[in-house]
Amino acid sequence: MTIKNLQIEYDAINNRNTFSNGDAINGRIILEVSKETKVQSLLFIGKGNARVRWSEHYGQHTHVYWSDEKYYSVKQHLIRESRQDGTEVIGKGRHVFPFSFKIPDRKMPSSFHSSVGRIVHKLKAELHQSMKVTKKAKTHFTFISKADMDTPGLMVSQHESKEKSLAFGSGNVSMDIFAQKMGYKLGETLSVSIKINNASSRSVKPKLELYEKKSFFAMGRRKVQTNTILRQKAEVVEAQSGKKAITMMITIPTELPPSILNCSILKLEYRLKVYLNIKCASDPTVKLPIVILPEDNSRELNEKQPLPPVGFGFEAFGNPNPQSRGATSQAMSLPPPYEASAMYPPVPHKF
């Protein structure tokens, strides 16, 4: 076999081995050949794209939904044909071809992987030879998008309220929820103030839950997956105890991926769910949107922010009708509306 090895590698620029908008990636393509070899071209490709795909079963029918979104595709010729026969000759041994690639400095989503959708940023090498199958090598790099500090409402305080009348004349219970802001950095403490008025004959227990929501969009459909990240509870508020103020604090886990709000076919979002646990009754619940920011951001967090638009939250993001393609196993009418909720899937190792 003439081509013994073809591989591509790059140099890290930080201890997390991540890259962001406008960063330059320096690396090399390594080619080893067992003897003098003719090649047509050696091509470097830097590429970023997103894809979602899932299937739904309705009796004997299966419908596949999928969609793509492309961000950039940059190509560089490291070897070009220079002889009249359209080839270039390289000698026996190991050859190193350096490359430098600048990631486009514009808004793009961070790397993401799940069983339904993924956002991939990768580097590829392609070796073309006459009358032979193209040899390929690739490697992925982790892209973390710069924080979008212009997200409406990011640093604006949040307030929601909920009131519930209990059955059988058991009285009323209400709560007001206050959060300092919507955007948080990894490792930052999130403080929630809960004002409870328990004018009922039952005790209530305040609880909160931070969870993630992944939404995938294709062909006018949506698939949803949720996963609880952490839970916390406070002391019981006794029956007929009147007004009481409680403060609950959680630390944003440092291993969480940042929110993805700038992709039309895939969203990664977070919410803080605050509720009062009441025996033998449905729990009054309030949900606040939370945006997890990447580690690096240049704008001061206390800078004034515009208010969020009406209906801000999960459904305010995303285009449910992006350009997409699909296939159906049999002729059939469009299946009924679907929304699935499941635990976070394992991260796949291949793409």
Overall number of structural domains: 2
Q: How much beta, percentage-wise?
A: over 45%
CATH third-level topology of the largest domain: Immunoglobulin-like
> What's the overall average pLDDT, rounded?
85
Describe the 3D structure.
This protein has 351 residues and is an all-beta fold. The chain folds into two domains: 3-143, Immunoglobulin-like, CATH 2.60.40; 158-298 and 308-328, Immunoglobulin-like. Helices cover 0% and strands 54% of the residues. The protein has strands spanning 3-10, 18-19, 24-33, 37-39, 41-58, 61-79, 88-90, 93-102, 112-113, 117-128, 135-140, 142-143, 158-165, 171-179, 183-185, 189-200, 205-218, 221-233, 242-251, 266-277, 285-293, 324-328. Strands 5, 6, 9, 10, 11 and 22 form a six-stranded antiparallel sheet that branches. It has a five-stranded mixed sheet with strand order 15-21-20-17-18, with no helix packed on it. A hairpin with a 2-residue loop joins strand 5 (41-58) and strand 6. The protein starts with a strand and ends in a 23-residue tail after the last strand. Residues 297-351 have low confidence and may be disordered. InterPro entries: Arrestin-like_C, Arrestin-like_N, Arrestin_C-like, Arrestin_domain-protein, Ig_E-set. It comes from Cyprinodon variegatus (Sheepshead minnow).
